[in-house]
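User: two proteins, same treatment. go.

Assistant:
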Amino acid sequence: MQKSFVKRERVLKNVKKKIFDDFLPQYEIKSKDINILLSQLSYQNVPVILEIGFGNGENLFFLAKSYPKQFFLGIEVYKPGIAHLLSLLKICPLDNIKICYNDATHVLEKYTTNLIFDKILILFPDPWPKHRHHKRRLIQESFVEILYKKLKLNGIIHIATDNEDYCTHSQKIFSKNVNFIPESKLYRLIKTKFERRGIKNGNIIFDTLWRKI
């Protein structure tokens, strides 16, 4: 099974570890329970947005705060990023957000029903710039097929990167799939940590969106 990450875990310092331990139970949803929650939301016609690899969680937090009638699910494997998101939720609790501490590929393949997400965000994934590492990139034909199954009709996949080669790579992958068409750029409400870093380094930000047909 292709993983959506390569393990590079850092040890949490005391403050972050306490936040992680104290608040994760409040916001975590176990993989085995995701379908129950998503089925309930679908029955209630609540739009569901998934962010894969949400980094430090600022974007996910801001979206959930800005759109209280939508539901936001974030899947992440790195504890420091989860701890940062939990620190934001400690200050401003929200009831329309859940965190799944797991590998996104595994969760999507094994624990989510089809036709469930209105939008999937993949913002600044690891570009793996060396050619010999391209096979590690998240956006591959097999992964796009998984995303297709999980998206609702007319659902949107939004990919952002500051790596032009990764942008070209993802465009080639999606262009091969007749089930997606390009979509106009959508305005992202805030700049993520990795976007700010890219801009600081003088990089161009590439946003590409694909609509399921």
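Protein 2:
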Amino acid sequence: MMIDPLWLLLHLLGLAGPGILAIGLIFWAWTLIECVTKEPSEGNDKIAWILFVLFVPFLGSLVYYIVRRPERIKAVGR
């Protein structure tokens, strides 16, 4: 059985556990809900972002939050 080095590092630092998983799940759900409710329905952008956040959960949420959300807020204002 192989041990994932990232998991081992997080576990040694005390960051792996139910708390970090709960925070990640809440962040993922929040970005998904925000994408569904506030993303403009122009073209296929909304569908693409929803699929990206759904199928690549943590990375998709981070990319949406860092890249797309500020652009949307600047363009649409919400």
